[in-house]
């Protein structure tokens, strides 16, 4: 058999044809589809004819050498058959390492580079000639690379929405082949002057990059270089200029680029500084620079209404990607990197700059709030940084300048307050009280009475859910903020005002100061002495609720040990007065809010010493 394979090209092609036909189900070259489960596996290399790999290497080398003169149709068909053969072999994962160590991949990359150069050139010959065989070879060549560098199809599972845990990845028996040094120059060159390259082929190249990063850390750190990051940013920047291209393909290209960047950020987080060629902070710096691109510098033909909608759509995708980036195991580390990258300033500037656009402003504002929430999620330090650098008064003014808010935007502020789904009242407590104060301040500005009622009703429920929530609101001076809002009673719906007064009574039963009580009484003054203020009855009920003690008597002053790191520190022994001292206190053990993220883990409890 080997003799005929070496001496008779037709026999070799026939043998390859039969082999590929027998295992055609393994040629899943569509990156968008999850690999089909097949019970059978292709044969191991040891079961193939002796020295067959050497014979095929020589055949592939001959094809490469003849590329400059142009391959004949028969040689094109043979080169495609060879690539299909290698893909099938690699679907037996035990073959991946040996195939990767051979020179096949370099020969295939050389041919693919030349073919892509042809596909990028716009000539009359290209318009007349059928480019299908060349495109088919390129797609199969990229799938061959994926088979070597992501044998378990981690990337395909990721884009399909299935995330593999670290434990699942550690159970993957076979490792990907070592990445060829040819890949980074190849990837960079493919996107140079690529205006006429099909968007679908660009998507395949992005899929391959994502597969390499998801396939294994060693290859990922080799692929993530200044050159490849420059390509991803350039591709992303090009996504707002569609020209006559398919809008769906351009949008998909942007989505894939952002998924690649997310994967890159996650892989860099798990590496040490001496392993990285690029720092996460550098990527974020370029990312925010693109997010806040100065559209006014563009030529007038591009600054049309259609371009604006595309640019905003891209900005929304980029904002949503920030949330995806922060969904990782090393979240606190990444949050610190985001803070050092001045992310809050960039996001607020985005809201300020977007006022020049005509449409989609509300959706952009919603995505910006989501990104801010993600950066501050479960991080007291990040919340403090936001208060100091930006301040909620400033973000309120910026949001108000965008016009009347939608229900979605207001709900996103609610989500920011509970750091989860605002509808989960009773499950989630208050994690960030500042958005609640902002919502109370915004109520008189809302023209929709339905929105006023909806927000005030939700505020009443979330703020009064337990002692901890009431204490949080009282400490944030919410009582004064409510009274200030009630002063605008002429624009408040009566149901909204009643909800606010009831909330006031509940918070006052927790703690109320003389100044707050004085402001509340002053609220009832009217210009006509004989005419009662519409709030008289609900305010009197609220004051009675403050005075009335329900349930067990409780201390008016206490230590709040709600936070997981909270405790009471005592002086060191040598500072004790005398030989010892005692400390006596009653304990009030409120029921903790359930954190959905920790329900599956072992429970936590406070310890008393």
From TrEMBL:
The lineage of its organism: Eukaryota, Metazoa, Chordata, Craniata, Vertebrata. Keywords: WD repeat. Residues 303-546 form the Neurobeachin alpha-solenoid region domain. The keyword Metal-binding does not apply. One of its GO terms (molecular function) is protein kinase binding. This is Neurobeachin-like 1. Signal peptide: none annotated. It comes from Leptosomus discolor. One of its GO terms (biological process) is intracellular protein localization. Transmembrane segments: none annotated. The keyword Nucleotide-binding does not apply. It comes from the Eukaryota. It holds the Pfam family Neurobeachin. GO terms for cellular component: cytosol; membrane.
């Amino acid at each position: 058999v080997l003799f005929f394979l070496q001496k008779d090209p037709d026999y070799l092609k026939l043998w390859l044809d039969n082999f590929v036909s027998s295992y055609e189900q393994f040629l899943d070259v569509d990156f968008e589809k999850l690999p089909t489960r097949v019970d059978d596996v292709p044969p191991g290399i040891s079961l193939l004819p002796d020295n067959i790999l050497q014979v095929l290497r020589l055949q592939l080398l001959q094809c490469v050498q003849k590329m400059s003169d142009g391959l004949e149709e028969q040689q094109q068909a043979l080169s495609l058959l060879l690539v299909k053969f290698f893909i099938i072999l690699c679907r037996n994962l035990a073959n991946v390492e040996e195939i990767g160590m051979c020179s096949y991949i370099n020969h295939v990359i050389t041919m693919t580079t030349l073919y892509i150069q042809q596909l990028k050139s716009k000539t009359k010959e290209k318009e007349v000639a059928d480019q299908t065989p060349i495109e088919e070879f390129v797609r199969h060549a990229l799938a061959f690379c994926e088979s070597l560098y992501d044998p378990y199809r981690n990337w395909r599972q990721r884009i399909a929405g299935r995330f593999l845990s670290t434990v699942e990845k550690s159970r993957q028996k076979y490792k990907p082949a070592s990445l060829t040094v040819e890949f980074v120059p190849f990837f960079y060159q493919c996107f140079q002057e690529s205006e006429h390259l099909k968007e679908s082929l660009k998507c395949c190249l992005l899929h391959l990059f994502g597969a390499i990063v998801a396939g294994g850390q060693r290859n990922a750190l080799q692929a993530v270089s200044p050159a490849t990051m420059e390509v991803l940013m350039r591709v992303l920047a090009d996504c707002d200029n569609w020209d006559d291209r398919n809008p769906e393909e351009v949008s998909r290209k942007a989505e894939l680029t952002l998924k690649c960047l997310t994967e890159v950020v996650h892989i860099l987080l798990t590496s040490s500084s001496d392993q990285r060629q690029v720092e996460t902070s550098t990527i974020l710096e370029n990312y925010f620079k693109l997010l806040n691109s100065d559209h006014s510098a563009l030529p007038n033909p591009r600054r049309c209404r259609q371009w604006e909608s595309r640019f905003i759509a891209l900005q929304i995708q980029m904002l949503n990607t920030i949330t995806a980036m922060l969904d990782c195991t090393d979240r606190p580390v990444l949050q610190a990197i985001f803070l050092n990258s001045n992310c809050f300033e960039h996001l607020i500037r985005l809201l300020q700059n977007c006022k020049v656009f005509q449409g989609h402003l509300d959706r952009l504002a919603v995505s910006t709030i989501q990104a801010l929430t993600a950066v501050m999620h479960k991080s007291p330090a990040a919340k403090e940084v936001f208060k100091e650098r930006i301040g909620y008064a400033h973000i309120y003014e910026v949001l108000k300048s965008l016009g009347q808010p939608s229900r979605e935007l207001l709900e996103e502020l609610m989500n920011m307050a509970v750091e989860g789904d605002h509808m989960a009242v009773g499950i989630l407590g208050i994690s960030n009280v500042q958005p609640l104060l902002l919502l109370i301040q915004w109520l008189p500005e809302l023209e929709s009475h339905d929105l006023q009622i909806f927000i005030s009703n939700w505020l009443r429920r979330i703020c009064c859910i337990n002692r901890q929530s009431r204490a949080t609101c009282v400490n944030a001076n919410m009582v004064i903020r409510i009274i200030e809002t009630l002063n605008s009673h002429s624009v408040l719906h009566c149901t909204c005002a009643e909800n606010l007064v009831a909330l006031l009574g509940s918070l006052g039963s927790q703690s109320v100061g003389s100044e707050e009580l004085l402001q509340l009484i002053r609220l009832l003054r009217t210009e006509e002495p004989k005419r009662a203020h519409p709030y008289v009855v609900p305010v009197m009920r609220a004051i009675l609720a403050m005075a009335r003690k329900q349930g067990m008597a409780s201390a008016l002053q206490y230590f709040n040990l709600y936070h997981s790191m909270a405790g009471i520190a005592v002086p060191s022994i040598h500072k004790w007065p005398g030989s010892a001292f005692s400390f006596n206190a009653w304990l009030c053990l409120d029921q903790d809010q359930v954190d959905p993220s920790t329900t599956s883990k072992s429970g936590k409890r406070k310890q008393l010493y």
